[in-house]
Amino acid sequence: MATLTFQRATWCLQISRTSRTFAVSFTTAIPHRGELRKLPSDVTNPLRPGRLDRPRARSSRHSSARTVFTSTRVYQAQQAGAAAGAPAAAPLKPRYNQSAPKPPTPAADGAGAAATASQPPTEPLPDLTSGFDDTPVVLDEGSRQVDWARSFHGLSAEAFSKEAADALLQPIPADDIEIKPDGIIYLPEIKYRRILNKAFGPGGWGLAPRGETIVTARAVTREYGLVALGRLVSVARGEQEYFSPEGIPTSAEGCKSNALMRCCKDLGVASELWDPRFIRKFMKEFGKEVYVEHVVTKKRRKVWMRKDDEVRYPLKETKGFGM
Description:
Elements: E1 3-8, E2 11-16, E3 21-28, E4 64-70, H1 72-83, H2 106-118, H3 162-169, E5 178-179, E6 185-186, H4 189-200, E7 205-209, E8 214-215, E9 219-228, E10 231-241, H5 248-265, H6 276-286, E11 287-294, E12 300-306, E13 315-318
Antiparallel strand pairs: 1-2, 2-3, 3-4, 5-6, 7-9, 8-9, 9-10, 11-12, 11-13
Helix pairs in contact: 3-4
């Protein structure tokens, strides 16, 4: 066995070429505190000729000795793994914690992402000033149902029965007619519905939209068709003003009532309300014009009302301007 030995101070390296082994022995003798380890001044470093080792100070209190040995079997296994292309060994982990901040753990990030994903996305409220998305559904041409958004099925096919005609054409009682402050007489929307229910029965009639709702800068409008007993009776467009975007839904309902009132004119319901002679006679017999004053603003104006009605708050009746 050929052995090559290097010796420097207190450590020794031995390498065997035949058995392919090497051994390193390192022995250090540390004196007690306050003492210095002194080496002979004539000790020469075999790796660096001409350089002498200098004494070094040690602060440890104990003596230590270490020996590292690699056997032939382990060495051969390492050589075989390197020849076969085995992956390199993982780098050693540091013995002590580093001061750098730790990145957030994947579990915490996953929990936060799951909490965010579990919350349903909030959708912005639609702007009603741009109109409604209520276009009527268009049916197929081969469908047996009637597409009231486009069809005129049953229009003027035959007259209604005598009982239905009597209910539609009966005179309107004077107690049902109302007067607006500007002097226009009208029949409340609910009275039209009662007349239709009396003539065709509840469920025997209905309003079918024939277009989408149009919202302008100050009004809402939409076209409706009145269908009674499976037949189209009349088509009219309703309208209703609004003063703020919050009032658009209410105006859309008022638009439907206005269309119903206009459709009923084709059936002769409350047709006298559009007769100028009836209007003048009714206003002379049942209407009156009075001066009123606003309790808060103190503004005065002249309004029309029924003779059997009273001025309501915030208005009060007064004798006139300047009185």
